[in-house]
Amino acid sequence: MADIDVQRAERRRRVFTEQESRRNRKQEVYDAIHAVSIKQDNLQIIREPIVCNEEAMDWEPTEPDFDDNDDPDMCGEYCKEIFRNEKKREDTWVLSTRLSDKKTKLRVSCIDWLTEVCTTWKLATDTLFVAVLYLEKALSSLDYTLDDMQAISGTCLFLAAKMEEVQAIPIRDIVEIAPGTSVPIIKAYEKQILTALNYQMVTPHLMLFVRRFNSIAGADLETHNLSKYLATLVLRHQGHCSGLQSVLGAAVCFMARRIMGKTELEAWPIRQTTYSRYTLEEIKTAVYFVSHTLSNANRHAELHRNNPNKLPTAYNVFNQRKFHHIRALATMKTGLHFCYTIYLD
């Protein structure tokens, strides 16, 4: 058994090394093909592709997913079609319903509770984002009282775990952690939420596009953790469902790279525009939304720095060692963050 584990680890290392070298080679050729020169006499931009040898051109420059073809679990050959289909289905998840002040505050508490449960039970990241989308759809469609929101949140988590987890959460575990609920109540809300969703359980959620855009950009682990932190903060804002999740995901990835010290061209290069189909101008409003959310989070953390119990769950989760204390890094980069907010204004 030990020999098999060693062989598997060696194979993963070899595949990762090959993928990394192939990705670097692709990026070099891609930059060479799209080299831009400016004529000084009339300031016209001329694209002059540089001739490369045949060995360097044995790849398709419009497909970033060929790196995963060696791994059958990644299904790289279907990736382009999958994300094209997800973008077509985004419009059905754009919600414009506004909640009352009391319901808005309780909604934020429910999302913090979902974040804490997913972290404690070590559920997949996608489970949290899918559960929040289900919750938004339920709150905009069902008739409920403030006392029902805890049961609705638990039911959304129960449904999301069925879709995303290898092993679904037992319904009695949901009842134990959600006070004031019971098995019949969870089952009753399950039917109502499924009807509100029209049984469309597969969701184009935010983390799906964040992971996609970071993969295209070749983001490192620290940048990806920062993107997850920003995305989790955005979930707490009621307006995160008022637009397309792919646009918001692009803004999250752009802000994460800017916070890590990248310039605008480095944070959103031509490669990202080509694969995401979004220019920097098109995601400008979403970038401001993410920037504003982060500034509010930093001010809230500064206000309650001596009382950690009043801080959102995401603050404590992403300040852990396994996330490289990414929340503290985001707070230290506040100067850059505010500068970019002013620039957008």
Kindly describe this structure.
With 345 residues, the protein is an all-alpha fold. It is built from 16 helices and two strands. The chain has helices spanning 2-33, 79-88, 101-120, 125-141, 149-164, 171-177, 183-197, 206-217, 221-235, 245-259, 264-267, 270-276, 284-303, 313-317, 326-332, 334-344; strands at 36-38, 45-47. A two-stranded antiparallel sheet has the order 1-2. Helix 5 runs antiparallel to helix 6 (171-177).
| Series of H and E elements | HEEHHHHHHHHHHHHHHH
Largest sheet: 2 strands, antiparallel
Q: Describe the strand arrangement of the main beta sheet, using strand numbers.
A: 1-2
Give the averaged pLDDT, no decimals: 77
Low-confidence parts: 32-62, 334-345
- Portion in beta strands: under 5%
Helix percentage range: 55-70%
Tally of helical runs: 16
In total, how many beta strands?
A: 2
List the helices and strands and how they pair.
Blueprint lengths: L1 H32 L2 E3 L6 E3 L31 H10 L12 H20 L4 H17 L7 H16 L6 H7 L5 H15 L8 H12 L3 H15 L9 H15 L4 H4 L2 H7 L7 H20 L9 H5 L8 H7 L1 H11 L1
Antiparallel strand pairs: 1-2
Helix pairs in contact: 3-4, 3-5, 4-5, 4-7, 5-6, 5-7, 8-9, 8-10, 9-10, 9-13, 10-13, 13-16
